[in-house]
Amino acid sequence: MKFLFDLIPLILFFAAYKLSGWNAEAAQHFINTYLSGIVSGGTVTPDQAPIVIATLVGILATMAQIGFIKLQKRKVDFVLWFSLGMFIFFGGLTIYLHDEDFIKWKLSIVYWFFASGLLVSDLVFKKNLMRKSMEEIVELPDLIWARLNLAWICFFTAMGFLNWYLAFVLFKGDTSAWVSFKAFGSTAIMFVFIVGQTIYLSRHIKDQA
């Protein structure tokens, strides 16, 4: 359930983009009429309207997520706060300048931030963040914890470059294809990686037992 809950802003971002794309002129009219104060020049073109609408929906959905967690008096984890901050910064630039490049860069920068965080924490502070987050639920040898941390560093780094390549090279000029990748492609890759990691770790959990 948590996995689906975490995907809500992404799903709504995708749905808002597609619906706005199918009704681009209506989306443009809505922005120019009701949101002119938050876009540079006060107007957008029909081609720019879908990404502006989708980005705004994504920001509001992430804020609603945090609000829901707060209402339940649960702790909002750092990843969600960070995601909101990045969404507001890069999404705000996308909305104001009606330039899709900013929201495209956001995904790569988030991936690289996580990779850097894991690497710096390990090398500088001698703390394995993957171990810290998972050691209460699983016991593993020190070597496996080190490999796990390295695997996530490589994964996040590779995903950042993959997003950059798709957004600005392969799908350059085709924002719809990039949005589909962001919603489904990156999620599927993450799911496969986690499944593979789980299978690998299960072998060592059995060995420990």
Mean pLDDT: 93
What is the structural class? mainly alpha
Instruction: Give the overall shape.
Output: elongated
SSE string, helices as H and strands as E? HHHHHHHH
Q: Which stretches are poorly predicted, pLDDT < 50 over at least 5 residues? A: none
Q: What is the count of DSSP helices, taking H or I runs of 4+ residues?
A: 8
Largest sheet: none
Distance between the termini: 29 Å
**Secondary structure tally: strands:** 0
Alpha carbon gyration radius = 19 Å
Helical amount: over 70%
| Share in β-strands | under 5%
Characterise this structure.
The chain is an all-alpha fold and 209 residues long. It is 80% helix and 0% strand. The protein contains 8 helices and no strands. The chain has helices at 2-22, 24-34, 49-71, 78-97, 101-123, 129-134, 142-170, 175-208. Helix 1 crosses helix 2 (24-34), helix 3 (49-71) runs antiparallel to helix 4 (78-97) and helix 7 (142-170) packs antiparallel against helix 8. The longest helix has 34 residues, at 175-208. The protein is elongated, with a radius of gyration of 19 Å. The model has no long low-confidence stretch (mean pLDDT 93).
